[in-house]
Amino acid sequence: MVDETGFVKKGRRSAGVQRQYSGTAGRVENCQLGVFLAYASQAGRALFDRELYLPESWIADRDRCDDAGIPDGRWHQGVLTKPRLAEVMIGRTLAAGVEAGWVAADSAYGCDGRFRAFLEARRMPYVVEVPVKQTVEDLDGKRRVDTLIGRAPAEAWHRFSAGPGVRGERVYDWAWATVPSYGDLPAGFVRTLLARRSIDDPTDIAYYLCFHPDSVDRAEIVRVAGARWAIEECFQAAKGECGLDHYQVRRWEGWYRHITMAMLAHAFLAVTAATDPKAHASWEDSQSPRSAVSWR
Fold first, then answer.
1. Choice between 162 and 145, residue whose per-residue pLDDT is larger
2. Three-state SS annotation for 176-220
3. Where are the domains positioned within the chain?
4. Helices marked H in the chain — which ranges?
5. Is the pTM of this model over 0.85?
6. How far is it, in rounded angstroms, from Cα 223 to Cα 95?
7. In whole angstroms, what is the distance from residue 121 CA to residue 209 CA?
């Protein structure tokens, strides 16, 4: 799973800090943003890799970067958007021999065509959320995802749980359709469009673009869509249990040292809970979440 989290700071000297939107705070704040990669399995989940986002206001000021200890090599790369940072982390993770069945991300990454193409080139299946204005190919041109989902017949919707949450099973209605392709897909793979509709409010619909082997079934796609929230649980646990956001360092190297140590502590607790759950039940509990298309 890929996502970012904010670290609210005062002043302007902390590496990468500026006024920017922080999902953690739910508003624009003076903060740093870290992009993270998390790994989840049935045994548990943990943060896996990290990169500090450097906005244009920093890249444009070489002296400011020097004062914060930002390496020349990173400064010369210019502004790397959050999807590009995600690609860096996924690329080195795969190069290190780590095996993963899926990549999941929210719409900040899902709407980026380069990010999806990066994963497809590596035969890396994904389920990524996209905004309502996202377009996909239809036989007679591009169509918005909400337009295509609006054409879904009643029998296209099926009720599934996306996994357990703090209030029990997260049950939604789901529609899933194959998106037309034009010879640009690896053999045996398909692109699909997934929609998640609230049972209580049928106007509340989330949309996902998916890429995967054509043998995958609907239940598996729904499971992956629901698993993305594991990274939010990782942030909560790493901040609450391991001090991920409890630091006063300003320089680049200090940020990476602190974040890496907190991630290591979080991973240690996750592995310990997986191998000795009775001795660490409280930790284990904190990691559990309470058209032209052909409809499937």
1. 145
2. EEECCCCCCCCCCEEEEEEEEECCCCCCCEEEEEEEEECCCCHHH
3. 1-103+242-290, 107-227
4. 56-59, 62-67, 72-76, 82-95, 107-110, 113-121, 145-150, 218-227, 230-242, 252-275, 281-286
5. yes
6. 26
7. 16
